[in-house]
Amino acid sequence: MAEVVHAPAKTDGIDLDYVRTLMAHFEPEDWQEGQELILSALQEINEHFGYVSVEAAEIVAERLGTTINRIYGLLTFYADFRTQPRGKHFMLMCHGMSCYVMGSQKLVQEMADKYGISDGGTTAGGELTIQVVNGCLGACNQSPVVKLDDDYHGRLTTESFNELVQRVIAETAQEQ
Amino acid sequence: MAQPTSDLPRLTSQKAFDEFRARAIEKWEAIWNGKKTVVSIGIGSSSIPVGALDVMAAFERIADKENLHVRKTGVDGADWTDVQVRVKRPGEPAVVYANVVPSDAKGIIDGKHRGKIIGVEGDQPFDGIQPLDTHPFYKYQQRIVLQDVGVIDPDSIEEAIARGAYMGLYRALFELTPEEVIAEVTTANVRGRGGAGFPAGIKWESGRKARVTPKFVTCNSHEGEPNVYKDRRIHEGDPHRVLEGILIACVAVGAERGYNYVGGEYPLAIQRFRKAVDDATALGLVGRDMLGSGKNVAFRLRTGGGAYVCGEGSAMMYSIMGVRGQPRTKPPRSVEEGLWKRPTVANNTETLSNMRDIVVKGGEWYAQFGTEKSKGTKLMTVQGPMKTMGLVEVPMGINFKTLIDEVWGGMRDGYTFKGIQTGGVSAGPLRYEQLDVPVDFDSLTPLGGMLGSGGFVVFDETVCAVDFARYLTAFNRVESCSKCVPCARGNPALVETVDRIRFGRGSQRDLPLLERTSKHVIELSLCGLGQVAPMPLLGMMQQYPEEFQAHIDGVCPCGVCPVSAEATVEALAAD
Question: Per residue in A81-103, pLDDT tens?
Answer without folding.
Answer: 999 898 999 999 999 999 999 99
